Amino acid sequence: MNGSRQRGLRVRGASVVLIATVLALSARGAVHTKVVDTGTLVPGTAQNFEDLVLFDGPAISAGSVAFRGQSTNPDLSPREGIYTTLGGSLIAVAETDDAIPDGGGDVFASDNNVFGFGPPSISGSNIVFQGDSAGATDRGIYAKFGPLPLETIADTRTGSNGGFTTMASPAIDGDNIAYWGFSVFTFPLVTSFEGIYKHSGGSGGSSATVADKDDTVLGITPVRTMQSFSSAQVEIAGDDTVFMALDSFGQRGLYRTFGNLAVGKPRVYSDTVIPDHPTEVFDLFFTSSVSADGTALAFEGQNDDGAVRGIYTVGGFNVMTAVDLNTDVPGEPASSRGSTTCRSKARPATSSSWAKTRAAIPVSTLCDPARSDCSSRKAIRSTARSSTSSSSPMTGLTARPPSTRPPSGTARRRSSRSISRPASSRSRRR
User: What is the DSSP string of 281-347?
Assistant: First the structure.
């Protein structure tokens, strides 16, 4: 896959640096090259990038980096944009007050404490991102193909069934773009439409539906249909699309389409046995960790209490462990497995951010923001289960009811869980 995205990569501190990493021959000898920091001028201005409103979602392809950054205008109004190092120098792809393509005079803007742009995806010289106008009255997926002007891929005035209400998670590979879309209509009846869509043909191309609500899940009995989709991340590899969906039986799965063929059996399901753990099944997929190339996909997953957790690869329908909590850290003693250090006691501003932060904390222990002590994951899950609704809009995570551990030797099956449909896919500043 030519395009690459990294979600939720944030660094806090007095000096924030966005880096591109090139692996050296030694496993521990990586070479780091600074791309931009808080001493870097925003292109075309006399202001530096800020360290309080942080860089987010950097992506890299063929040595070029694309990222979202913010600064402050001389009148103290926020300035935000998508920037890239394409061509060897830092340039702006789109910024606050730039005209929205086909926007009828509207411009890109951000409301107070709300980003007006989503993290970008880059492939070669092509870049795609989500952008908003003031108040998000116009929201769309926008792309720049090489030297061509910025253009609209889909927005709130396009899409099936009369137009999208919101969109998120665009990913690009070559000239192909995949994204999530959602629509709500109130007349004559309240109805909603949700799906995964793909734009083909580059500049001037067109979008088509990859999968949407009520599509039949092939290859599984009894017959079931797709009911909702995770908006956290959609991936595309060549002409193939990867996404997460929840079916009418409450089962969560990772799906991969091949070209324009119908969506088939999920590559990984919520009752798939975890490799090397015959009595454990996947209970949770971290949706912001999915990645794919032309032959395989990779994801982060765990069992119901987090005791079994790792990064796994899927080739065909064969799931293999890349690394888990039993894997030795290269160059470190075996005692470095499953560190019990509590890294943070501060809950991010949104539940989706909390889900992302969890992925960076060792699984053997986790800080519950509602408690003053550092509690085990089981204690936190118990707290979550007592809540009637703790959905995470961006990741589609919802607290599950208590489960009963089965007898030894029996693979555990998970309870139903719904992927919530977000009212907004905008990320709040931290």
Answer: E--EEEEEEEEE-SS-EEEEEE-TTSSSEEEEEEETTEEEEEEETTSPPTTS-GGGTT---------
Indicate the SS3 state at residue 383. helix
Q: What H or E segment, with its residue span, contains residue 358?
A: helix 351-358
| Long-range contacts of 174-177, Cβ-Cβ distance < 8 Å, separation of 24 or more | 174/2, 174/3, 174/123, 174/124, 174/126, 174/202, 174/238, 175/126, 175/145, 175/200, 175/201, 175/202, 175/203, 175/205, 176/200, 176/236, 176/238, 176/239, 177/128, 177/141, 177/143, 177/153, 177/236
Cα–Cα distance measured from residue 324 to residue 336, given in angstroms and rounded to the nearest whole number: 12
Contact, 356 vs 334, CB < 8 A?
Answer: no
- Pairing mode, strands 78-84 and 64-72: antiparallel
Q: Is 134 exposed, middle or buried (0-12, 13-18, 19+ CB in 10 A)?
A: middle
Q: Which residues pair with 240 in a beta bridge?
A: 237
**Residue 55 corresponds to which tokens in the numbers above?**
């860089």
- Determine if residue 161 is left, alpha or beta; phi over 0 gives left, psi from -120 to 50 gives alpha, anything else beta: left
pLDDT (tens digit per residue) in 155-185: 987 654 457 888 999 999 999 999 999 988 7
Question: Could you please report the per-residue DSSP string of 118-171?
Answer: PPPEEETTEEEEEEEBGGGSSEEEEEEETTSPPEEEEETT-SGGG--SEEEEEE
Please, are residues 414 and 281 in contact by the beta-carbon 8 Å criterion?
Answer: yes
Distance CA 142, CA 135 (A): 18
pLDDT tens figures, 351-381 = 233 233 333 333 332 333 333 333 333 332 3
d(CA 110, CA 116): 4
DSSP string, 230-245: -SS--EEETTEEEEEE
For residue 279, name the pLDDT band (cuts at 50, 70, 90). very high
- Which ranges of 369-419 would DSSP assign to H, the alpha helix? 377-385
| Rounded alpha-carbon distances, angstroms, from residue 313 to 126, 218, 296, 309, 323 | 27, 22, 7, 13, 10
Residue 331: both structure tokens together: 């160059």
Q: SS3 for 58?
A: strand
Q: Give pTM, 2 decimals.
A: 0.72
Angstrom distance (rounded) from CA 45 to CA 162: 40
